[in-house]
């Protein structure tokens, strides 16, 4: 799928508020206004590196966040913020202070699990308590799968049912628990 075809496909999916993000029924989101050239430049200056071309293109042609996998893409200044009210650049500073890597958070899945992007290579990464894991995908293929309806959550985590006692009812129940994230430890800047 070419970039323009991907933009059209994303536009069709996000036109429906129920499929705008994977968590649209839990936390409805609005697609943020388009990022301006000036806001992109300011974000890149703050980051100290350029945004990956496809991410920059999406922010300027689809919207400055508020759509996509998980809780939706996190925008730059003037865009859609994460659940705590932070921009992509603010989150990067919190997650990797004084770090010269070109990695930024893309979206939040909850449970301390984030999808991130290496802006130097386009590699899509999963971040958790295990560190950064390479999903084996680039941003283009990852978004193509999302548009096609793939369950990206199931692709990136191993979930097991665990038996626990409900603290209110004292009954034993089975609940799904994330045991680990899939992938291989990521070496920053490794070629795809």
What this model shows, in words?
The protein is α+β, with helices and mostly antiparallel strands. It has a single domain (3-185), classed as SMI1/KNR4-like (3-Layer(aba) Sandwich). 29% of the residues lie in helices and 26% in strands. It has 6 helices and 7 strands. The chain has helices at 3-15, 37-47, 53-61, 88-95, 139-147, 152-156, and strands at residues 103-110, 113-118, 123-128, 131-138, 157-165, 172-181, 184-185. The strands form 2 sheets. Strands 1-2-3-4-7 form a 5-stranded antiparallel β-sheet. The protein has a two-stranded antiparallel ribbon with strand order 5-6. α1 runs parallel beside α5 (139-147).
Using the 3D structure, state the CATH architecture.
3-Layer(aba) Sandwich
- CATH class, named Alpha Beta
> What Rg do the Cα atoms give?
17 Å
Structural classification? alpha+beta
Number of domains: 1
What characteristic shape results from the CA principal axes?
globular
Strand arrangement within the widest β-sheet reads 1-2-3-4-7
In short:
With 192 residues, the chain is of the alpha+beta class. The protein has helices at 3-15, 37-47, 53-61, 88-95, 139-147, 152-156; strands at residues 103-110, 113-118, 123-128, 131-138, 157-165, 172-181, 184-185.
How would the blueprint of this fold be written?
Blueprint: H1 3-15, H2 37-47, H3 53-61, H4 88-95, E1 103-110, E2 113-118, E3 123-128, E4 131-138, H5 139-147, H6 152-156, E5 157-165, E6 172-181, E7 184-185
Antiparallel strand pairs: 1-2, 2-3, 3-4, 4-7, 5-6
Helix pairs in contact: 1-5
């Amino acid at each position: 799928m070419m970039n323009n075809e991907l933009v059209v496909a994303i536009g069709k999916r996000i036109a429906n508020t129920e499929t705008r993000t994977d968590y649209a029924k839990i936390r409805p989101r609005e697609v943020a206004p388009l990022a301006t050239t000036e806001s992109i430049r300011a974000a890149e200056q703050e980051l100290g590196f350029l945004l990956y071309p496809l991410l920059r293109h999406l922010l300027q042609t689809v919207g400055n966040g508020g759509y996509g996998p998980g809780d939706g893409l996190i925008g730059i200044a003037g865009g859609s913020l994460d659940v705590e009210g932070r921009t992509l650049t603010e989150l990067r500073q919190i997650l990797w202070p004084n770090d010269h890597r070109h990695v930024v958070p893309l979206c939040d899945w909850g449970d301390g699990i984030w999808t991130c992007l290496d802006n130097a290579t386009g590699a899509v990464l999963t971040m958790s308590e295990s560190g950064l894991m390479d999903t084996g995908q680039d941003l283009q293929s990852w978004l193509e799968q999302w548009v096609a309806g793939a369950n990206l959550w199931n692709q990136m985590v191993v979930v097991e049912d665990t038996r626990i006692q409900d603290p209110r009812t004292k009954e034993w129940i089975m609940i799904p628990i994330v045991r680990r994230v899939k992938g291989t430890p990521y070496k920053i800047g490794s070629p795809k």
